[in-house]
Amino acid sequence: MTIEHLHHLFLEFPLVCTDTRKISPNCIFFALKGDNFNGNTYAAQALEKGASYAIVDEEEFAGHDKAILVNNVLNTLQELSQFHRNYCKAKVIGLTGSNGKTTTKELITAVLSRKYKTIATKGNLNNHIGVPLTLLSITPDTEMAIVEMGANHLKEIEFLCKLAMPDFGYITNFGKAHLEGFGSEEGVIKGKSELYDYLTSNDKSIFFNADDPIQKEKLSKVIKKFGYSQNKSEFFGIKLIGADPFVKIAVDDIQITTQLVGSYNFTNCCAAILIGKYFNVELDEIKRGIENYIPQNNRSQIIKKNGHHIILDAYNANPTSMKAALENFQQLKADNKIAFLGDMFELGKTAEKEHQEISNIATNMKFDQVFLIGENFFKTKSDLRKFKSFDHLRETLNNKTLKNATILIKGSRGMALERILDLI
C-alpha cells in the first residue's frame, strides 16, 4: 500500500493510536516496536477493541483482513505524517531549545488560540514518534500548528524538520542539556540550530530573542527574522517588571501579570507575545491568553500546603535551568527558604563537575536549608545535607518537622521529586 492510499484511509479514520490500552473506536493502530515490546503482537487485540485497521511489519501478524503489512511501521508513521502535513493548509511553527520548550509551546498556543484554530504538541511528545503524532492531529480546519521538537543528539532536529516542514521557528535558548548525547555545549548549539538551518535554507521566517548573544550572532545575516528585546529599539520591545513570585511584563502601555513563577519564564512569555503580535492577535487578547495560562505537570507550579509555599519545578532539570531556578529562588522575598535539589541526568562525563558547581552555587546562596538528593549530588564536596536516594531523604523528613517554609523542589524527571509533597 502506498502512503497516498494509506492517507486516504487516514482521512476516513483520522485517529492514530500506538497503545492498545488507549484504543479508540475506528482508530488506526500502528504496531510500533521498542526495546522491550513488539507492537505487532498486539495488533489483533487492537482490532478486537475497535481499531479500524492495524499497521504491522511482521508477516505472521498480517493474517487479519484489517491488518496492513508494511516494511517498517515507524517509517510508515513518519512518512504518513509528512504526507499529511503537506496535504493540510495549517501554518506550522517549529519550536526547540534546551529549556522552556513545553511552557513556551503552551503559551504560544494560549495566545494564538484567541484568534485561530490551533493545535499543538500534547505534553512533551516531541521526538521521532511524538512529532508525527502531532502532525497527524492537524485537521482540515486547523490554522496554526505548534510543533515542539526535542533532541539529545545531532541531526535529530534536522530529521524532525523534514517531517514537520515548519513555516516559522523559534529556539528558546541554548543550555547545558543532554550533554551526554551532544558531547558539549557547542554540540548543543549546533544541534538546536538545525531548526535555523532548515528555515534559512527554505526561505522561512525565524522568531528570536535579540538579547541572546548566541542567537543574535547566528542570525546576523538572516533577513527574515523577527525579534524581541528589552534593550534594542530596532526590535519589538517587551519589559520585565518583576517576578516575586509571578512574572509581570510591560508591553506598550499594557501590563501582563502571569501565573508563572520565575524570571526565567520571562522569555517564554516574550516568545508568545511576539508571535501573537506577528499574527495580528490583538494585545488585549494576548494578555488574556497569557494571564489565563496556569502551569501544570510539575512545571513552576505554586502549591500551598500545611503552611508552606512550594515552588514545584520537578518536571526536568539541567545545569542551566537549575541555576536559573536557584537565582530566582534567592531573589524571592521570603523567610525560611528550603531547597530540595535532585540529580540532573544525561550529563555524561561532565556530571561530576556540573553537580559540584550547582552544589557550590546553592552553598553560596545561604538558604536556610538545602537538601541534595541523588547519587551524583551525594558525591559532591560540600557541607549541605546529602542523600544518596529519595528513600534516604524520606527517612529523614519523616522525623523532621518543616514549619512555614518557602520551598523549591527542582530535579530531573527520573528523580520524581514531586513525591516530596507527600512528606511535607
Automatic annotation (TrEMBL):
<dbReference type="InterPro" id="IPR036615">
    <property type="entry name" value="Mur_ligase_C_dom_sf"/>
</dbReference>
<dbReference type="InterPro" id="IPR000713">
    <property type="entry name" value="Mur_ligase_N"/>
</dbReference>
<dbReference type="Pfam" id="PF08245">
    <property type="entry name" value="Mur_ligase_M"/>
</dbReference>
<dbReference type="InterPro" id="IPR036565">
    <property type="entry name" value="Mur-like_cat_sf"/>
</dbReference>
<dbReference type="GO" id="GO:0005524">
    <property type="term" value="F:ATP binding"/>
</dbReference>
<comment type="function">
    <text>Involved in cell wall formation. Catalyzes the final step in the synthesis of UDP-N-acetylmuramoyl-pentapeptide, the precursor of murein.</text>
</comment>
<dbReference type="GO" id="GO:0051301">
    <property type="term" value="P:cell division"/>
</dbReference>
<dbReference type="GO" id="GO:0008360">
    <property type="term" value="P:regulation of cell shape"/>
</dbReference>
<keyword id="KW-0132">Cell division</keyword>
<keyword id="KW-0067">ATP-binding</keyword>
<keyword id="KW-0131">Cell cycle</keyword>
<feature type="binding site">
    <location>
        <begin position="97"/>
        <end position="103"/>
    </location>
    <ligand>
        <name>ATP</name>
    </ligand>
</feature>
<feature type="domain" description="Mur ligase C-terminal">
    <location>
        <begin position="299"/>
        <end position="413"/>
    </location>
</feature>
<protein>
    <recommendedName>
        <fullName>UDP-N-acetylmuramoyl-tripeptide--D-alanyl-D-alanine ligase</fullName>
        <ecNumber>6.3.2.10</ecNumber>
    </recommendedName>
</protein>
<keyword id="KW-0547">Nucleotide-binding</keyword>
<keyword id="KW-0963">Cytoplasm</keyword>
<dbReference type="GO" id="GO:0009252">
    <property type="term" value="P:peptidoglycan biosynthetic process"/>
</dbReference>
<feature type="domain" description="Mur ligase central">
    <location>
        <begin position="96"/>
        <end position="275"/>
    </location>
</feature>
<dbReference type="Pfam" id="PF01225">
    <property type="entry name" value="Mur_ligase"/>
</dbReference>
<dbReference type="InterPro" id="IPR035911">
    <property type="entry name" value="MurE/MurF_N"/>
</dbReference>
<dbReference type="InterPro" id="IPR005863">
    <property type="entry name" value="UDP-N-AcMur_synth"/>
</dbReference>
<dbReference type="InterPro" id="IPR004101">
    <property type="entry name" value="Mur_ligase_C"/>
</dbReference>
<dbReference type="GO" id="GO:0005737">
    <property type="term" value="C:cytoplasm"/>
</dbReference>
<comment type="similarity">
    <text>Belongs to the MurCDEF family. MurF subfamily.</text>
</comment>
<dbReference type="InterPro" id="IPR051046">
    <property type="entry name" value="MurCDEF_CellWall_CoF430Synth"/>
</dbReference>
<dbReference type="GO" id="GO:0071555">
    <property type="term" value="P:cell wall organization"/>
</dbReference>
<keyword id="KW-0961">Cell wall biogenesis/degradation</keyword>
<keyword id="KW-0573">Peptidoglycan synthesis</keyword>
<keyword id="KW-0133">Cell shape</keyword>
<feature type="domain" description="Mur ligase N-terminal catalytic">
    <location>
        <begin position="16"/>
        <end position="71"/>
    </location>
</feature>
<keyword id="KW-0436">Ligase</keyword>
<dbReference type="GO" id="GO:0047480">
    <property type="term" value="F:UDP-N-acetylmuramoyl-tripeptide-D-alanyl-D-alanine ligase activity"/>
</dbReference>
<dbReference type="GO" id="GO:0008766">
    <property type="term" value="F:UDP-N-acetylmuramoylalanyl-D-glutamyl-2,6-diaminopimelate-D-alanyl-D-alanine ligase activity"/>
</dbReference>
<comment type="pathway">
    <text>Cell wall biogenesis; peptidoglycan biosynthesis.</text>
</comment>
<dbReference type="Pfam" id="PF02875">
    <property type="entry name" value="Mur_ligase_C"/>
</dbReference>
<dbReference type="InterPro" id="IPR013221">
    <property type="entry name" value="Mur_ligase_cen"/>
</dbReference>
